[in-house]
Design a protein that fits this description.
- The complex is a heterodimer of chains A (102) and B (200).
- Chain A has 102 residues and is α+β, with helices and mostly antiparallel strands.
- Chain A is 41% helix and 19% strand.
- Chain A is built from five helices and four strands, in the order αββαββααα.
- A four-stranded antiparallel beta sheet of chain A has the order 2-1-3-4.
- The longest helix of chain A is centred in the last third of the chain and has 13 residues.
- The two termini of chain A are 43 Å apart.
- Chain B is α/β, with parallel strands linked by helices and 200 residues long.
- In chain B, 48% of the residues lie in helices and 10% in strands.
- Chain B is built from eight helices and five strands; from the N terminus they run αβαβαβαβαβααα.
- Chain B is globular, with a radius of gyration of 16 Å.
- Classes of the chains: A alpha+beta (102), B alpha/beta (200).
- At the A-B interface, β4, α3, α4 and α5 of A face α1, β4, β5, α6 and α7 of B.
Chain lengths: 102, 200
């Protein structure tokens, strides 16, 4: 199969027009009316991508900006903290803080 | 100044008990990359009509995620309907993009053949699958979180969501108040774990 052989993150694959299954590129080129050759990109995590390219170079928003957009009061952070401590425990939260600083 | 539009992501999934973990994983993944999860749970019954608010909400989002894997009874037409609205927004306004999610590969070719040519992200019904797909589709080039870390974050968020549900004695987490609390907790946890900053 073409998909297995390719090492680059962008490569061509053949697909059967009826079933959608992958076929060799050579066969797809030969069977012009019943198959197509597609360009596929595979990311590091191995997930197929197609359609719109939505990836941006702009960094995401900060927590306070998201709270502002969703009109969440900053005072409610205290309640969130209480719930986190209740369910996960304070110990666990501190472990992640250590991880973050490392 | 924050630009909410380009960071807002509309979540279109079935509000079914079996999709609670998927929904929480989606919220966790989006918050971890600094995106704003939006969904119809935000909409209060205000008399102006639910459909109008869905339109407005979709218009406020640059991207929408549509999970089209609910193909069993009870039949729900909300997801394909909202995908139709997103398609029309993309076609006539050009300022909207949509991403398709499915549990099973190639099934969408049969269930929604009109959209052939757009491959959905296949998450295989798992939370880790959702995390991988969301990070892959929407993750910024500058922030690269390990999917395993975001998955752990999502699992902890699910535990908190279940606790909230138990405390409020409600059937599902798909309630307006729970959604706001979930986002608030997710933001606090995301800051604690170093995914996003508190302030810029």
């Amino acid at each position: 199969m073409a998909a297995k052989k390719a090492k680059a993150s962008v490569f061509k694959v053949g697909r059967d027009a009826k079933t959608g299954k992958f076929i060799p590129v050579k066969a797809a080129k030969r069977r012009k009316s019943t198959a197509i050759v597609e360009t596929v990109r595979i990311s590091r995590s191995g997930v197929f991508k197609s359609g719109d390219s939505i990836k941006t170079t702009t960094p995401g928003l900060s927590a306070s900006e998201i709270r502002k957009t969703l009109k969440i009061k900053k005072s409610s952070v205290v309640n969130a903290r209480k719930r986190i401590n209740k369910v996960l425990g304070k110990k666990k939260a501190s472990v992640f803080k250590r991880e973050k600083s490392a | 100044m924050p630009k909410p539009f380009e960071h807002s992501v509309f979540i279109n999934i079935p509000y079914d008990k079996s999709y609670e973990n998927i929904f929480v994983a989606m919220v966790a993944s989006l918050v971890s990359i600094g995106k704003i999860p939006r969904c119809t749970l935000e909409i209060a019954e205000s008399g102006e009509g639910r459909l109008n608010r869905i339109y407005e909400l979709l218009e406020e989002c640059a991207v929408s995620i549509h999970d089209l894997s609910h193909v069993r009874t009870p039949v729900r037409f909300n997801m394909p309907f909202e995908l139709g609205i997103a398609c029309s927004l993309k076609r006539y306004k050009g300022s909207h993009s949509y991403i398709l999610f499915e549990k099973v590969g190639y099934r969408l070719d049969r269930t929604l053949s009109d959209i052939k040519g757009r491959d959905p992200y296949i998450y295989k019904g798992s939370m880790l699958g959702i995390v991988n797909c969301v990070l892959d589709a929407l993750g910024s080039e500058t922030c690269r979180h390990k999917p395993s870390r975001v998955h752990k974050f999502a699992q902890d968020l699910l535990r908190i969501a279940k606790d909230t549900k138990k405390e409020r004695k409600i059937e599902s987490i798909f309630k307006r108040a729970v959604f706001h609390e979930l986002i608030n907790v997710a933001l606090t946890l995301a800051v604690d774990r170093g995914f996003i900053p508190e302030n810029k």
